[in-house]
Amino acid sequence: MVEPLIVVGLGVAVFVGFNIGGSSTGVAFGPAVGSRIVRKVTAGALFTLFAFLGAWTVGRNVIETMSSGIVDAAVFTPEASVGVLFFTGLSLLVSNIYGVPASTSMTAVGAIVGLGLATGTLNAALMFTILSAWVVAPLLAFGVGVVVGRYLYPYLDAKFAFGRLENPLVGIDTDGRLPRPRLDADVAPRDLLGSALVVAIACYMGFSAGASNAANAVAPLVGNGSVEADPAILLAVASIGLGGFTIARRTLATVGDDITDLPILAALIVSTVGATIITVLSYLGIPASLAVSTTCCIIGLGWGRASRARTLVEIATPAESPAGTGAGAGSAGDAGGGGGGAGAESPEFSTGALSAPPGTDPEEGGAGPTVGDLAEGEVPEEPGAEVAPIGEERPEELPAESLFDPAATARIVSLWVITPALSVTGAYLLFSLIA
Sign (positive/negative) of CA torsion 338, 339, 343, 344? Predict the structure, then answer.
């Protein structure tokens, strides 16, 4: 009876890894694919390689935590392992069907928590640490984004103006006997540097995703001794790579095209911050969500960029409404919170402030490059543009576009909540019935 269950467990682990690859490849390489720097097949290959490096090194710490830390390893019977992996994979499949890069770590931990609650073996102290990290990591990413957006981003944007790619950076030359890769000859050296940085950061995110997510596919099997750590990592990465080459096409399209028209510079910043936070947590053995931290950094970066139109004193000073207007300090989503004094009307800011350098009219071709739908023939502003000091930038100079597509964002946030909830609930109900 045990041997068939182990085989089933391995099959379910492959199913989980397949869905993890479909989700995480979009998070890591969505900007690179959306900006036409790499193709989807290339993204899948690079993601698989660097996910393996992350899983083989730092990822071992996360496997140890999830295989014997959250619940005792003895609880991971073959039946329990199959159940945990099944609900993890099923919940991730729901997100992948909708093209949403789900929080794989939260979903996998949720299934283990359901097992621990049903059997009374949950390590409450460790779960408190993990939950605390799930709160602190997004807040830290948001805070770093705010600081960079308010104090550094405009200067970086003025110094490094990356162009937009009209054609894929690397194509296939079929003129000779054998097809061979060729570089787009029309790419400027500065744009080539920017493209190389985008790919490098995407590979770093792949490393981070492998470090955090390999455990989600195989930790229960390692916990019950069915598979040793080394072959378990190889199995996890192989199945993750399979998902990266296949089902990831949907999440690559969602992240690269639907979520946001994110400037290349902003993509570099948020990817670096998100991947660094998750790599550090993985080194500490704490599974956490790369997608959530990265998204919070995007929001913080846009908020900080938009808030430059007001000094800290002006932001902290409540606006006094003109008599009879009912205008207050602005809507809850205003980045600029307070007005500049009595009778001042609080301007409405959007995180779309990342879309263009200060004082630039997008209709004149000066809008910063974006990762998403790329307009043909647009030329970026040359480096060296003067940056207005904080408090002197006019609010009307900030573009009106939203950083996020509202419908896509609502779908993503909803499924970030739904998938772990499905995982916890399903596992708890199953193990309550059979315990």
Answer: negative
Q: Which residue has the tokens 């194509």?
A: 171
Checking if the pLDDT of 343 tops 60, the result is no
Per-residue pLDDT tens for 38-87? 888 888 899 999 999 999 999 999 999 998 899 988 888 888 888 898 88
Rounded alpha-carbon distances, angstroms, from residue 118 to 66, 425, 429: 17, 10, 8
Cβ count near 196 (within 10 Å) = 12
Tokens of 206: 């792949």
Residue 76 buriedness (CB in 10 A; 0-12 / 13-18 / 19+): buried
Tell me the mean pLDDT in the region 165-176: 65
Please give the span between the terminal C-alpha atoms of the chain, in angstroms, as a whole number.
Answer: 18
Structural contact between residues 290 and 205, judged by C-beta atoms closer than 8 angstroms: yes
Contact 264, 194 (CB under 8 A): yes
CA angle 27, 163, 202 (to 5 degrees): 20
Exposed, middle or buried, 179 (CB in 10 Å: 0-12/13-18/19+)? exposed
Nearest to 267 by CA among 186, 355, 184: 355
Instruction: Answer yes or no: are the C-beta atoms of 154 and 357 closer than 8 Å.
Output: yes
State residue 295's pLDDT score. 76
Instruction: Work out the number of other CB atoms within 10 angstroms of the CB of residue 160.
Output: 16
pLDDT digits over 183-238, tens only?
666 666 776 777 788 889 889 999 998 999 899 889 988 988 888 999 999 999 99
Q: Distance between CA 413 and CA 400 in Å, rounded?
A: 23
Domain positions in the chain are 2-304+405-434
- The one-letter amino acid code at 274 reads G
pTM over cut 0.85:
no
Q: How far lies 98's CA from each of 48, 53, 361, 416, in Å?
A: 22, 29, 36, 12
Q: Classify the phi-psi angles of 324: left when phi > 0, otherwise alpha if psi is within -120 to 50, otherwise beta.
A: left
Output the CA torsion 72→59→240→34 (10° steps): 130
Q: To the nearest 10°, report the CA torsion of 138, 143, 146, 147.
A: -140
Rounded to an integer, the average pLDDT of 7-34 is 83
